[in-house]
Structure formats: C-alpha cells, structure tokens
Amino acid sequence: PIETTEGIQTREFNYVDNIVKGFIAIASVEPIPDVVINVGSGEEIAICDLVRKIHSLSDSTSELNIGTLPNRPTEIWRMCADNQRAYDILNWKPLISFEDGLKKTITWFKEYLNIYYSTNSSLNKL
User: Fold this and answer.
1) Model confidence, pTM
2) What's the CA gap between 68 and 71, in Å, rounded?
3) SS3 assignment, position 34
4) How far apart are CA 31 and CA 51, in angstroms?
5) Most CB within 10 Å of its CB: which of 4, 32, 88, 90?
6) Which helix (H) or strand (E) holds 88?
7) At 69, is the pLDDT very low, low, confident or very high (cuts 50, 70, 90)?
C-alpha cells in the first residue's frame, strides 16, 4: 500500500533535459545577468495528484491511501518557481511537459529495473 498525507501541498517538477538546457542558456548569455534566474517549470502540482499520476502512468496495482498520514508540523505548502526572467533574458522555457517528463522517467526506471534484476546483469551483484 502507498500511504500519504492529504497531499494538498504543491511542488514544481521539471524534467532534467529542461534544466540542462536552461543552464546552458545561462552559461551562453553575455553579459552574465546580475539577477536570479529560475529555470523552473512554473507549474505546480499537488502531491496527491502527483501520486495518482505516477500510480496511473506506471500501471501500479498498489492500494492508494491518500490522507492516511498526518501532515508534518513544518510542512511547506507551496513551492513553485517564477521562470519569467528565464524567458525574458534567455528566451528559455521548458520544452518537455511535466507529464511527458514523468512518462520518460517511468520508462527509464522500468528499463533500469529490468536490466538490474536480469540474471545476466552484473549490476545486481555489486
């Protein structure tokens, strides 16, 4: 079973290719900007929605128990980057959407597990 809090807190996720391209864009601009530039996705997702999305996209049969755990007393309720400067200064924006990035991540993880647990793999003997 998968147990979570009510999951109404939000977070932002950005696929690694987006971040790398953002860093390259920052390294390529001259003069170097003297301001903070966020290379975030600018899109929030509630943790309960994230859990449901991963559950669905991974074809999980695990039992979901959202809301069974208490919230942490020091919970951060909202976390999201304002990426407007990245667009204005670098002409950068994330190209891989949250859902596409999540699908790529799940596919990679499943392939990795198949390789790792393969009887021919030396990885699982480390």
Assistant:
1) 0.82
2) 9
3) coil
4) 42
5) 90
6) helix 84-90
7) very high
Residue 14 near residue 86 (C-beta atoms within 8 A)? no
Structure tokens at 13: 């996720």
Residue 53 has pLDDT above 90, yes or no: yes
Q: Which of 63, 64, 60, 22 has the alpha carbon at shortest distance from 47?
A: 64
Give the Cα separation of 120 and 126 in Å (integer).
13
The pLDDT mean for the chain works out to: 93
Extract the tokens encoding 16.
């690694």
CA dihedral 24, 30, 36, 42 (to 10 degrees): -50
* CB 11 within 8 Å of CB 79: yes
State the DSSP string of 45-98.
EEHHHHHHHHHHHTT--PPEEET-SPPPTT---------HHHHHHH-----S-H
| pLDDT for the residue 124 | 59
- How far, in Å, CA of 4 to CA of 14, rounded? 22
